[in-house]
Specification:
mainly beta, L,D-transpeptidase catalytic domain-like, 9-stranded mixed beta sheet, 3-stranded antiparallel beta sheet, 34% strand, L,D-TPase catalytic domain-containing protein, cell wall biogenesis/degradation, peptidoglycan synthesis, cell shape
């Protein structure tokens, strides 16, 4: 397993010899036991890379070795602890709260889904913790890098790799 290492204090991501700035949650980092839905905190720990979601016309699939798929209209991610599909991909519209994966900004043009709180999901312990594109500001709990850095990293990532947030 190769690991993307995120230093939450320094706001730096390292992958082998490659290092780059990254954004983390507006609430900083927190212990996994303290993570709560909506707290803006990036959870410490090691999370498997589950797969990649790409926005058509905004990202390329060439060279990606992780499982991937195109994001479609109506794709969302449940962030409602009362939803039986909490912290899972869902179809919109929905009776429960869910994040739209086709955002107005470019942050979700490339999403690497992290295996945080997904085996199985514990309601209220955090959802939609992704590795995505930076918008030049802190995230809601994800890790984000500039587009050029993400496009450089994506072809190097493979099944079994993970992200460690320290």
């Amino acid at each position: 397993m190769t690991v993307l290492r995120v230093d939450g204090t320094a706001r730096r991501l390292r992958f082998g010899e490659i290092a780059m700035p990254c954004a983390i949650g507006r609430g900083g980092v927190c212990q996994i036991a303290d993570k709560r839905e909506g707290d803006g905190c990036t959870p410490l720990g090691r999370w498997p890379l589950r797969g990649v979601l790409l926005r058509p016309g905004k990202a390329q699939s060439h060279g990606i070795r992780l499982p991937w798929r195109w994001v479609r209209d109506g794709d969302g991610w449940s962030d409602d602890p009362a939803d039986p599909a909490y912290n899972r991909p869902v179809r919109l519209p929905r009776a429960f709260s869910a994040e739209n994966l086709l955002r107005a900004d470019d942050a979700y043009d490339v999403i690497v889904v992290l295996g945080h709180n997904d085996a199985p999901p514990v309601p209220g312990r955090g959802s939609a913790i992704f590795f995505h594109l930076s918008e030049g500001r802190p995230t809601a709990g994800c890790v984000a890098v500039e587009r050029a850095d993400m496009l450089r990293l994506l072809p190097m990532l493979q099944p079994g790799d993970g992200m460690e947030i320290i």
